[in-house]
Amino acid sequence: MALIVQKFGGSSVANAERVMNVASIVTDTYRQGNDVIVVVSAQGDTTDDLIEKAFELNSKPSKREMDMLLTAGEQMSVALLAMAIEKIGCPVVSLLGWQAGFNTTSTYGTARIKSIKADRMKAELDKRNIVVVAGFQGINKYDDLTTLGRGGSDTSAVAIAAALHADRCQIYTDVEGVYTADPRKVEGARKLPEITYDEMLELATLGAQVLNTRSVEMAKKYNVEIEVLSSLNKASGTIVKDGSKMEKMLVRGVAKDTDVARISVTGMPNTPGVAFRLFGKLAQRKINVDIILQSVGRDGTKDITFTVSKANAEDAVEAIRSSFDLDEDAISCDTNIAKVSIVGAGMESHPGTASKMFEALFEEDINIDMISTSEIKISVLIDANDADRAVSAVHKAFLPEE
Amino acid sequence: MALIVQKFGGSSVANAERVMNVASIVTDTYRQGNDVIVVVSAQGDTTDDLIEKAFELNSKPSKREMDMLLTAGEQMSVALLAMAIEKIGCPVVSLLGWQAGFNTTSTYGTARIKSIKADRMKAELDKRNIVVVAGFQGINKYDDLTTLGRGGSDTSAVAIAAALHADRCQIYTDVEGVYTADPRKVEGARKLPEITYDEMLELATLGAQVLNTRSVEMAKKYNVEIEVLSSLNKASGTIVKDGSKMEKMLVRGVAKDTDVARISVTGMPNTPGVAFRLFGKLAQRKINVDIILQSVGRDGTKDITFTVSKANAEDAVEAIRSSFDLDEDAISCDTNIAKVSIVGAGMESHPGTASKMFEALFEEDINIDMISTSEIKISVLIDANDADRAVSAVHKAFLPEE
What we know:
Two copies of one chain form a homodimer.
Chain A: E1 3-8, H1 16-31, E2 35-40, H2 46-57, H3 63-88, E3 92-95, E4 102-104, E5 113-116, H4 119-126, E6 130-134, E7 137-139, E8 145-147, H5 152-163, E9 168-173, E10 194-196, H6 197-205, H7 213-222, E11 226-230, E12 238-241, E13 253-257, E14 261-268, H8 274-284, E15 292-296, E16 302-308, H9 310-323, E17 331-334, E18 337-343, H10 353-363, E19 370-374, E20 377-383, H11 387-398
Parallel strand pairs in A: 1-2, 1-9, 2-6, 3-6, 9-11, 10-12
Antiparallel strand pairs in A: 4-5, 7-8, 11-12, 13-18, 14-16, 14-17, 15-16, 18-20, 19-20
Helix pairs in contact in A: 1-3, 2-3, 5-7, 6-7, 10-11
């Protein structure tokens, strides 16, 4: 008898029919003799609807109250899924994040899991109950509800798999697995049977929106094998696992991310500590900075260019304006850009990968604004209008149709 | 500085505009220097919508999962009201039933409050926060969410007022107070400035749907003065309080209840213990019986007639059928009936009240099926079609326009 953790996202439980479909996947697994813990997100557009309701009343609600509001979303979906499972005739119990023992930090909106007190889940499994757990949520030391941030249900699932040493952690989505590129847009894109944690991390960060980054980090840390698969059919998915057991591919996939804003600050004094102060201010506001480029201008001043997510752009500009005495036009912000990246664990031992990527872009006449590289990733920042063409060209260069 | 508990029902927070209205009532009270605890129900039709969603999946969901589902309703409304109060600029914190310390029995769907651990509420008041509490809900000894049953938010408010020795408990509704009869239907019906707990209890039980019965019982037990008033205007409401401080009125009001089913059982053996066995079976199923009439038939068998709420009728018939060996036509159930009642603490010392009521009905040619009396109440069971005429006639007889 194995312990299997299954996670279903909002679109997988968007309506009664889909909830019944999930219930049937879950009960099939249970009836094969397995212990099953199911993690669910809020139904379909519930979270967005709730956010809209909040903004009708208050354009800047506190994050604590926002978490109080949003956690109701998963509460409804766990209850509904439990009812659907009852209907099929299997014993089931639904648990909220705090009931399942999710203790988190106190940062409302983006809390991190500190520990899982799994007694209740274990007790329910011992009673042979299917356990349906509300993803995305937990409780902090003040006994207040917190959320793990968007995509947090993946993290909830992996955390449970780690805490209870589950035999498998299945993340059901509306795609069949992880692809070499977006199959709706790139001809020749194909499903990967497996991928390493590191590659998946780069792809997740880079906008291949299959798995939440934190969940992959956690899976890597606790060595939880994740299977990404579709709730809509029975095709085999993609296994995300430790790289040491896998063949290294030069390039595993090509990703596009359009949630990028580029902020340029010119005319900063060329003295030590300027960059530290600038990025310190952003860190205080919990703004993640991605690519950074720093250069010294001709007049001896510093120019600093960096990228953040679009949602943080305004806040970042404001932070800099209020901390530095700068001319009105010294800060510019461009959101019509995209980041295109190739990811592959084989890259680190294979020189010339970058130049091959740049060549593919050059041949398509696509201008590169910024470049960023890691051991297993190369990213370029380009005009958003060129992004799809860029992905296709790069995909063709590295992953030609077999 | 006074501590004021205010309760707002679902229709008072049905949309953004009304939530803002409630926020302004609450913050006005707070800014006058008072400590304020606000109890809210789920918004408008939320509860009904959730029940419908549940039934789409499972026509007989477990009560535990139903409570898990429904408690999300108040969770959303406390968060939204807190955001509206933040918008106005007052410090506020929302608390779920379990966070506010509501420990209940384990009967899902109709749990009773066992105790309130008020530490958190007190701590928040000490920080000068307005405390918004989710009504209708609590937690049982298994750490599972429970609901107090429909109208339970009134009980939540009174329980808080009792636990924290509040100076006032205001129940805001969409009517201005308690009336001598339904003002939409009875000419000359007027608002009562005050009413005793016992009178209110009889009226609440009898279908004057202003206050939940349990809440009045609890208010009486802990001597909490309740003020019933409208959230839509500033008119003074009705005070519900201890009768010893009040003038006794012969008849305080006339109520109509159409949620009545009359079940007749004929041909029961005329042996001791038959009634005990019958009503014991109903009690086991937690079916409340209201009026009971027992007579011995000509052939020496017993006939028993009683009333229950419509929702319990089918269950009651089933209970009797499975416990007694009766002819197919020995049990009949009639739901086209209504109960009309007069209530007044002065009645007990004033003979002739019943005959005056019967006379008023006789003059309207209304047939009386069953009669039930208590010290402060007289109820008659009549044809549902006659109910409104009966209320008007009785109201005119006892409470003529001033």
